[in-house]
């Protein structure tokens, strides 16, 4: 075989071999795609590290307006009975089977000086007696000693009360007023008064007038 023929044959065989290899090998795009898939699969197969999440601080529960518990209807924080009127407060008082002497003296002053008058006027009479017992000076230091102080209350005779109808409504009201005044359960319009006189007279006292309640005028 001539050299030229053999060279041409070798060239043809080399070309066919190269063409076959090139035809059977994957394309560049497929190679890149496969490489990307391998990387993606490798990343997906790796465990994702857990991220620590700080818990939110607990917020104290607050009560809504509708959930606010109201004070008991009977008493407030100071222990005073809740009532919408002095008349209602009087009706809420319990009548004790026996009275201590101080309450009896105070109730007697209310009974004899102002029974049948408006309740505010009766309470003001009780306030005067209590204020005197607390004032000191020329007033005695207890309720009964104030009531029996000579020349102060016209219903006292020789150191005694006149007879009291203890089963009547006037006495029960007087006792209730005395209890309210002693327990400071109602604010009187004459809370600082030390003196009073009947409205029908004008003694011309040089004192500060506080109020007129019922049939009496009150001063301090």
UniProtKB/TrEMBL annotation:
It holds the Pfam family Hydrolase_2. One of its GO terms (molecular function) is hydrolase activity. Residues 1-29 form the signal peptide. InterPro entries: Cell_wall_hydrolase_SleB, SleB_dom1. The keyword Protein biosynthesis does not apply. Residues 116-219 form the Cell wall hydrolase SleB domain. Coiled coil: none annotated. Transmembrane segments: none annotated. Gene3D superfamilies: Cell wall hydrolase SleB, domain 1. It comes from the Bacteria. Keywords: Hydrolase, Signal. This is Putative hydrolase. The lineage of its organism: Bacteria, Pseudomonadati, Pseudomonadota, Alphaproteobacteria, Sphingomonadales.
């Amino acid at each position: 075989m001539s050299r030229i023929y053999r060279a041409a044959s070798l060239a043809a065989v080399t070309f066919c071999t190269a063409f076959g290899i090139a035809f059977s090998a994957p394309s560049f795009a497929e190679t890149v795609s496969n490489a990307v898939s391998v990387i993606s699969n490798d990343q997906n197969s790796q465990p994702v590290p857990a991220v620590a999440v700080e818990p939110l601080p607990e917020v104290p529960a607050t009560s809504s307006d509708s959930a606010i518990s109201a004070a008991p209807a009977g008493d407030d924080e100071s222990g005073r009975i809740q009532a919408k009127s002095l008349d209602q407060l009087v009706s809420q008082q319990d009548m004790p089977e026996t009275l201590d002497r101080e309450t009896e003296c105070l109730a007697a002053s209310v009974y004899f000086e102002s029974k049948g008058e408006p309740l505010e006027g009766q309470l003001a009479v009780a306030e005067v007696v209590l204020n005197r017992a607390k004032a000191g000076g020329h007033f005695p230091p207890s309720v009964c000693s104030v009531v029996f102080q000579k020349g102060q209350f016209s219903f006292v005779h020789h150191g005694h009360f006149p007879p009291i109808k203890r089963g009547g409504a006037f006495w029960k009201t007087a006792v209730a007023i005395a209890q309210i005044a002693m327990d400071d359960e109602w604010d009187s319009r004459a809370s600082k008064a030390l003196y009073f006189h009947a409205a029908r007279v004008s003694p011309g006292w040089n004192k500060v007038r506080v109020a007129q309640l019922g049939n009496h005028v009150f001063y301090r």
